[in-house]
Amino acid sequence: EAGVAQSPRYKIIEKRQSVAFWCNPISGHATLYWYQQILGQGPKLLIQFQNNGVVDDSQLPKDRFSAERLKGVDSTLKIQPAKLEDSAVYLCASSLEDLYGYTFGSGTRLTVV
Amino acid sequence: AQKITQTQPGMFVQEKEAVTLDCTYDTSDQSYGLFWYKQPSSGEMIFLIYQGSYDEQNATEGRYSLNFQKARKSANLVISASQLGDSAMYFCAMREIPPGSARQLTFGSGTQLTVLP
User: Is the model's pLDDT at A10 over the cut of 90?
Assistant: First the structure.
């Protein structure tokens, strides 16, 4: 089966610019997650979707980050305006209802200069 | 709230030897799952092994085994016969299991493993 697709793979922007990331989960996976991984740290959950509804966005900086999952399939994560501290890898993952069926994408590496 | 602690920022091991990566966790839930992931420099998260809180036996997957000590709240990863390709970042993670709970993973800070030839 195809894996979780993410694009772009790399992105460099200046601070105060906007950027968007795209994720296409594995077909049939109802749950989709966006994680932020700062260099040298473990991934931190930003937002979790179940189909096209938000389950948890408690750690999403809502003044600058937004995410949507239209039609319960692919998802976009947007940052506007970006700050230097947003430099990180943004990982998308999807899962089934079983206990350990998580699949991660390769991530988008964002550098804000 | 769940918390995962990995106290070894970096570890070195000689090729063909075994190595143990430490992980302790904190949760008030009785039902939970523990995971180990490998993240090579290319960035993808590779699932290695899973242990459920009610599993009586330690999980094993090939050269990977999980030393689960529930009373101590530890879930250490043991890699036997290390290979050069095992050099990577390793993350311990946890999720809640009960129905209706959020199914997100909570990660530790990771351990960078370097296998020496």
Answer: yes
Q: Percent helix, strand and coil across chain B, each rounded to 5?
A: 5, 50, 45
- Classified as helix, coil or strand, A70 is helix
Residues A48 and B104: beta-carbon distance below 8 Å = yes
Residues in chain A: 113
Cα separation, B17 vs A57, whole angstroms: 43
The C-alpha of A17 sits at a distance from chain B's nearest C-alpha, in angstroms, of: 25
pLDDT score at B101: 62
Alpha-carbon gap, residue B22 to A61, rounded angstroms? 31
Partner residues linked to A50 by β-bridges = A31, A53
Helix (H) / strand (E) containing A21:
strand A19-24
- Asked if B43 reaches chain A (Cβ–Cβ under 8 Å), the answer is yes
> What pLDDT, on the 0 to 100 scale, is given for residue A99?
62
**A56–B44 CB contact, under 8 Å:** no
- Across the interface, whether the CB atoms of A104 and B103 are under 8 A apart is answered no
Does the structure show a pLDDT above 90 at B75? yes
> Which residues, including other chains, have CB under 8 Å from residue A23's CB and lie 6 or more apart?
A4, A5, A6, A32, A34, A74, A75, A76, A77, A92, A105
For residue B65, what are its two tokens? 């085994």
